[in-house]
Design brief:
There is one protein chain. By secondary structure, the protein is of the alpha/beta class. About 50% of the residues lie in helices and about 15% in strands. It contains eleven helices and eight strands. Strands 5-4-1-6-7-8 form a six-stranded parallel β-sheet. A two-stranded antiparallel sheet has the order 2-3.
């Protein structure tokens, strides 16, 4: 990594083990209302935006709460989970500290939001590891587009060619590669079905951060 000046990390599934959260919320939310979660419901929810998912849930189960109330209940449930139970991935803080010691600036590019992210960072005592945190809402584009990575790189004072990106989803790997950045795909239980795609798309695929600590090369 001789030419790397900045590292950009995704949050969910990359820095922290959090991909279970929304499945748990679906189950707990419906169970509290005497409703069993079906595979069909879970599958539909995966492809929906937050508000669309709330509207679908309200209509599907004829809930008394408004769409806005359902969204707030979900957010509050997620906030509690992120603040108390979501943990950082083993070896990630150590790698980031090693990078910082070598003069590499550290940024985060996430589709999450401060309401959930900040208390999780504080609970895991890693808030100080990131020079900047950027959100896809700031650029108005999801991670299928390179905008968030380019935006984060600029905030870090680095060109795309001077950046390395850590991601757990194919979309993030492909779009940051399109931007000219080096990429590391990070294993997560939620991405098991797309490991082949991640391995073929990224410059490197790792199961554990210790693999990067030991070698510190692409």
């Amino acid at each position: 990594m001789k030419k790397i000046k900045a590292a950009i990390f995704d949050f969910d599934g990359t820095v922290v083990d959090s991909m279970y959260v929304w499945t748990k919320i679906d189950e707990d939310f419906l169970k509290a209302r005497g409703i069993e979660v079906t595979d069909e419901y879970t599958e539909k929810m995966r492809s929906m935006y937050f508000e669309t998912a709330a509207a679908y849930t309200k209509e599907q189960y004829r809930l008394r709460e408004s769409v806005e109330e359902i969204m707030q209940i979900w957010l509050d449930m997620a906030h509690k989970e992120y603040a108390e139970n979501v943990s950082v991935k083993e070896g990630c803080p150590e790698l980031i500290r090693e990078m910082r010691d070598r003069g590499i600036r550290i940024g985060m590019a996430t589709s999450n939001n401060p309401y959930l992210l900040r208390p999780c960072l504080e609970n895991n005592q890693i808030s100080d590891l990131f020079d900047i945190i950027c959100y896809t809402s700031e650029v108005g584009m999801n991670k299928s587009n390179p905008d968030i990575y380019i935006y984060t790189a600029k905030k870090l004072g680095a060109t795309p060619e001077e950046c390395i990106v850590f991601e757990d989803i194919p979309e993030g790997i492909k779009s940051s590669s399109m931007a000219g950045m080096k990429t590391v795909a990070v294993y997560d239980k939620a991405n098991t079905d797309c490991i082949d795609e991640l391995e073929s798309s990224a410059d490197r695929f790792i199961y554990q951060y210790s693999e990067m600590l030991d070698e510190f090369t692409l």
